[in-house]
Amino acid sequence: MILKKYLPTLVCGFGAAVLSTVPGIKNFSCCLIVPAAAAISILLDKKIKSSNEKVLVGKSLGFGFLTGLFATLFITTFEMLLTYFTKSNDFIQSLPQTEIVMRQWDLGSFFGPMVDESLKLSKSVSKDIQKNGFSIIYLLMILSSNFIINSIFGMIGGAFGMSFANRKSREEDSEL
Question: Distance between CA 147 and CA 69 in Å, rounded?
């Protein structure tokens, strides 16, 4: 029964994750795809229940959060699978440029040894991925960053979905 209640968030989170693996579209996953998926999950729930009731703020934020959470879990899973099979990812490809930028900006003079330690850690993560196709530190990094970003943007999308669903129900009420 609980699964049925939150099925739209699961389906839309999965759809957002699938779209987030496509190169080019991947860059828009946090600010366009996840909010759109959250809004669609509210509309799907309203369509499934066939009700003309007003969608409440708490429900819309909850649906947005859950859509973002499911998207995070699926995006992280897909990213880790692709990384495991290819033994490469965007992190590895951008690491040399990141190091150059950090050296050019002379961040070491401001942050001291933290810059050198973070570069060492990044290089060890890169070596682990290239050797084994997996790094627990990379997994935790993308899981935590995706969770924070997708849950926030999911709730924003849920609020937009609530607005759209409530406007749509007002229009249907006025037609009667």
Answer: 6
> Would you state the torsion angle of the CA atoms of residues 68, 73, 78, 80, taken in this order, to the nearest 10 degrees?
130
Q: Which strand (E) or helix (H) includes residue 3?
A: helix 2-5
Helices (H) and strands (E) in the chain, counts: 8, 0
Assign 106 to helix, strand or coil.
coil
Sequential DSSP letters for 27-73: GGIIIIIHHHHHHHHHHHHHHHHT--PPPPHHHHHHHHHHHHHHHHH
Number of Cβ within a 10 Å radius of residue 46: 21
How do residues 10-24 score in pLDDT, each as one tens digit?
A: 999 999 999 998 888
Q: What is the DSSP string of 116-131?
A: HHHHHHHHHHHHHHHH
- Evaluate whether 129 touches 8 at the Cβ level (below 8 Å): no
pLDDT digits (tens, 9 = 90+) for 112-169: 788 788 889 999 999 999 999 999 999 999 999 999 999 999 999 999 999 999 987 6
Question: What is the end-to-end Cα distance of the chain in Å, rounded?
Answer: 33
Read off the tokens for 48.
């499934």
Rounded distance between C-alpha atoms, residue 20 and residue 14, angstroms: 10
pTM of the full structure: 0.89
